[in-house]
Amino acid sequence: MSAIDRWFGSDEPWERPRPSARERGHDVRLAVLAALTVALGAETMRSLGAFAEEPHGIAWQYVGMLTLAALVPFRRSHPVVVTVLTGVHLLVLGLALPMTMSTLPMQMLYFFLIFSGVAWARDRRAGLAAVGLVLALMIGWVAWSYAFGSGLHQAMTMIAEEVPEQVGLFSVPVAFGAFMLLTNVLFFGGAILLGQVAWNGARRTAQVVEQASTIQSQSTRLRDQAVVAERLRIARELHDVVAHHVSVMGVQASAARRVMDRDPDAARDSLAAVERSSRDAVGQMRALLGTLRSDDVEGDVDGPRSATDRSPQPTLADLPALAEQSSTPVCSVDVAVVESHAGAADRVPPPVQLSAYRVVQEALANVHQHSTARHARAVVRVDEDDDRLEVEVVDDGTPRAGTSGTGLGLLGMGERAHHLGGGVEVGPRHGTRGWRVRVWFPLEGRARSSDPVTARPGSPVAAATDEPQAVRT
To answer: How far apart are CA 261 and CA 264, in angstroms?
Structure first.
């Protein structure tokens, strides 16, 4: 493709939209104004005696002017056709009615129509061909009028009466021809150049509008995704809180019922554990649901409560209390936090600490609900040298019949691991009885190429979005 094609935009896929009804109405009014203007210009020149030697009468002069003005309403709807007709009209009128064609209002109208054709041509190749045809017609007309016709001879005769044969750098014929060439180059070149500038401006405006629309749609989609992600987070937190505390309360209530008659003190301890679990569950749910309310005033069943009154999210330091709360007469629980360096657990980012706590909480809830285990152990290893936190929960039981869950707990673990850039392994322990849950996160809490979200083949949490297949929730 030539440089002219590229400059004219022949290879551009963008196409300027067709004019609206309002724009077409505007062009009709503009055509009326153009007709009145060229008529006024002609009558002004007639009053000065410029039309004394015009070869045809007034009627043909008005036909020439009005037919040109009649092209204005179609300048945006049929720009290529208008460009070609403008060139033909200029050539015919220049040969038949040269003074009518050469008035300033008519010249400005020719300029405006050629400009409009370049600016509004939707088929850029056809528009370029139309412009080339107009230029060829104009070159032919100038050559005929001033080289092969009588125009140059008459002009030189008129000039020779007052001007010497040569007083400047050029001879009179050369100067006259150069003057006509320069005038036509500026006339047609200016119309084409300004038309192309207008077309480029419309294209850039359309691109900006399209980009703004794309940005707006992407912003809306990202906002919707953020809302969905927050809903999933809240649902995951609620599931972990409710599942843990309800399972503990169920086990403790069952133990209290069994020993109520023969050991009232043990039954009283179990019921106290149920009371503590219920209070903890309500407190954590209030703190979680408080994020859905305004930041200024938090309303709950006890009255207004400020956002600063909410309890902090659980951390690794709360794991011993979780183990004590989760221990029942049926199943004992112990938790250990192993640090590569002193104080490493305190330096773990809060989101990673919360996720580790929730994983332990959910795993212990699964033990109480779906296992016959008598003992469960949770170990959290914080390795700053390897930039890694690992959670492992094991028990010594077998799956309890008739307790198949929905799999939401395992799915929540996978989602937490995926969000923080870790991985999950869930399944039976090898070589012994029991179930094993292993989850790891990078300490910085973001995805790393060396720690993708993976799980052991065949694991129910092979990916965060896999359909859960385990018997535990």
So the answer is: 6
